[in-house]
Structure formats: structure tokens, C-alpha cells
Design brief:
This protein is mostly helical. It is built from two helices and no strands. The protein has helices at about 5-30, 35-65. The longest helix has about 35 residues, at about 35-65. The N and C termini lie far apart (about 50 Å).
Length: about 70
């Protein structure tokens, strides 16, 4: 695939997912609310990244204490 086709397909998928997420609660009710689900996943991802960085700093500190 050439770069312009990849860009076009990527834009179509991105815009389509935004439209589906925006109107999902109105179309299918609160059970299929993709916007809320995406927000929950984003918050969980931020939590795990911060926790992972904390563990990394602890391991680096322990490694420095051993020297």
C-alpha cells in the first residue's frame, strides 16, 4: 500500500470511531456507551504507567544502594 492510501484509510477509521463513540449512547443506550468505556481505559492506562514508573524508580534506587 502506498502512503496516501494508508493515510486515507487511517483517517477514515479514526473519524469513524470518533463518530461511533460520540453517538453510541444515543444509538444503542447506556450499555454500549463507547465514550465512557474509552475514558475508563484511558484512566486505567495512566494509572498503570505512573505505577510502572514508580516501580522503575524503586528498582533503580535499590540498584544504586547495592553499589
Amino acid at each position: 500500500m502506498d502512503k496516501w492510501t494508508e493515510l486515507l484509510i487511517g483517517l477514515i477509521l479514526l473519524i469513524g470511531s470518533i463518530i461511533v463513540a460520540w453517538f453510541s449512547e444515543a444509538w444503542w443506550g447506556s450499555f454500549w456507551d463507547f465514550k465512557s468505556a474509552a475514558w475508563i481505559v484511558l484512566k486505567g492506562g495512566v494509572f498503570w504507567v505512573v505505577a510502572g514508573i514508580g516501580v522503575l524508580f524503586i528498582l533503580l534506587g535499590i540498584s544504586d544502594l547495592r553499589e
